[in-house]
Amino acid sequence: MACGATLKRSFPKKEEVHPIMSPVSSPQKYLRMEPSPFGEVSSRLTTEQILHNIKQEYKRLQKRRHLDSTFQQESSCCPLDLQNHSGSALPGTSSGASSPFRKEQPLFSLRQVGMICERLLKEREDKIREEYDEILTTKLAEQYDAFVKFTHDQLMRRFGEQPASCVFVGLLKLLELVLLRQSPDFKLSINTLRSSGVLPSSGDTQQQSEELANRKMLEPFGKEDDHTFGLNSELFKTLKKGTTLVEYSSPNIAKKFHAGHLRSTIIGNFIANLKQSLGNNVIRMNYLGDWGMQFGLLGAGFGKFGCQEKLKENPLQHLFEVYVQVNKEAEHNEDTMQAARDFFRQLEQHESEAVSLWQQFREITVDEYQRVYKRLNVHFDIYSGESFHQHGAQEVVQQLQSRGLLKTSETGAGVVDTSTDGDMSSVCAVQRADGTTLYITRDLAAAIDRKEKYNFDEMIYVTDKGQANHFNQLFHVLRALGHSWADRCEHVPFGLVRGMSTRSGEVVFLEDVLNEARNRMLHNTSQSKTTKEMDDPEDTAEKVGISALIVQDFKGPLHSDYKFDWDRMLQAKGDTGVFLQYTHARLCSLIRRNEGVGGFIFDPSLLLEPTSIIVLQHLLRYDEVLYQSSQDLQPKHLVNFLLKLCHLVASAHRELPVKGSSQDVAQARLRLFSGAGSVLAGGMRILGITPVDKM
Q1: Of 57, 60, 288, 351, whose CB neighbour count within 10 A is largest?
Q2: Sequence spans of domains, the chain
Q3: Tens digits of residue pLDDT in 225-259
Q4: Which residues form a coiled coil (predicted)?
C-alpha cells in the first residue's frame, strides 16, 4: 500500500442545494429557505416514509391529469373552467367551476416537496461524508502502524472542536504510540502521554502539547546527521530488509549505447540507490546481450568488412558499421546468412578462433560502456550475460522434460503450457525445433543460477514494457519448476521516449545526447548574469545536463511514454533538473557566505514563523516519500517532493534573510537552510544526480 504523505481533507462539502422553484416565481430566482412546515411531525418521518409520500403524491397528480383530459373531452360546454382547472399547478389552485378533484387535497405543496428533496440530499451527503471519513481513518491507521505524523493545522481542522481531555499532536513522528491500534482517530489521552513521560505530570496541556510538537519537529535539525536525515525513520521498520538483485541497462555487445538504453540505466540505478539507502544489500547486475545469431552475423561480417586498425581507433563505431553492412548483404545473399550460421555454430562448439574474436568484441564493448556509465554516475557490481548460461539453459529444458512440462508444438519446437486452464491456449517456447535454446531459456537458467549464487530475497528486472509478456512467462515457468521464490521477482516496465530519433529516422546514440545536453548547458550558463565562477565549467554543465535528462524522465509514471523536449528540459525556472541544481548551488553559496554563523546549537523558537514551519513540515515528509517510492518503485514521488522543496526554499530565501538578522536568528535560519540543502542533496543522489556546489 502506498503511504499517504499527510492526513487528507475530509470529504469536501457540496454547494448549497436549492429547493425546486415555484411555478409562479421567476425562473431566475430560487425559493427562500424557510423553517420546516411539518413541525414536530417532520422530525419523526423517516427517509423511506418521505419518499413513499412523494411517490403517492406523484401518482395522484398523474391520475388527476389523466382524468382532467377525459373531463375536457366530455364537458366542452365549460371551456373556461376546464382551462383554469387544467392550467393549475396543483389541486385546489383553479377557481370557478367545481371539480371532481377538489376534495382530494395533496399531501405536500411544491415548496414542501423542494424542501424534502433538499433534506434527502443533505442526509445523503452527510452519510457519504461519514463513510468517507471512516474509510480514510481506517486506511490511515493501517498505514501509520506505530505513530502519527500530521501537521498541526490539519489536526486542528479535523479535531479542533474536541474537548481538552484529548490532545491531538501532529508532529510526534518519532514517538511510538502503543495504544494507537485502539485509537483509530489518533486520539492521545493526556494520561497516556503523562504516564509515559512524554508530557509533564501537570500544567497547561494545550501549551505543553504545542511545545512538544514544535520540539519534536525541530529535533532532527539539531543533530549532526544531515546526510542520514529521514533514513532512520520508524516507518522503515515495517519494510523487509535483505538482499536485492537489480538487473538493468543490459545492452547488446558490439553495438553503440543508443538513447533507448538510457531509461533502463537510470531507472535501475534509482531503484538500486533507493533500496541501498533503506538498508538493503544491493547487487547491481548488467546482463549483457552477448549471445545469439547476431554474433554469427557480426563474426562473418567482420571477416569480410572489418579492419583491426579501425577497431582500435573507434571500436563500437566500426563494429556498428560492419553490422549494418553485413545485415544489408544478408537480406539478399543466402551465402552470407549461411556464413553467419557457420560462425555461430563454431562459437557454440567453442572453436578457438571464433571464441577469441567474440571475447575481443565483448571486452571492447564493456570498456566503452563503462566510460559512458561513468559519465552517468552509474556502476555495476557484476557484468553477466547470456553466454554464461548456455549449458544451464539445456539443463532447464531437461528439467522441464523430466517433470512432464515440455510439450512439442506442430512446428517441432519445445513449449510449456502457460494457460490458466491447461488447454495450451497460451504457450511459452523454450527450445527451437533444431534443439537450440532461446532467450527465455537462458533467462530461466540465469534466474536459477542467481538464486543459488547470491540467495537474493528479491530480484528486480528493469526493461521496456514491450517485454511484459516475456517476464510473465518467465515467472510462470519458474513457479512450474517448483521455485516459489519466483513470487519475489518483479518486472519494472517503462514506456518509450518519443522525439529522440533524427529527422531521417536514424537511431540517436546516448553519447551524442549527453554531449548535446552538456553543450546546451554551457551555452545557457554563459548567457546567464547570475552564473558564478566555476572551477570546471564543462564538468558542471555535464552534471547539470544529466540531471535535466533524469528529472524529465522521472516526473511521470514510468510505464508512460513521454515526449523528449530539449527546451523544456533545460529551463532554469521550471520544474526541471536544472532548477534542482540551481537551488542546491544557491543553498551552498548561502552557507559559504555565512561560515561564521553556523552551528548545530540554535534556538528552535526562532523558527516558528509560518514560512519556516512550512519548510520544516515538508522536510518531515521525506521518509514518507521514500517509503512510498519503495512500495511502487516509482521515482516521481521523490522528484515532485524535491521540486516542491525547491519552491519552498526559494520563498524562504526571500522572506527569511540571514544577513542583517541578529546572531540567534541568523543561526537558526542558516540551520534551516542547511538541513534543506542536505535533504535536497540526499534525494538527488538517490535519483542518480550528482549535486553541484556552484552554478
Answers
A1: 288
A2: 39-108, 144-222, 238-405+440-498, 510-687
A3: 566 777 777 788 888 899 999 999 999 888 888 87
A4: none
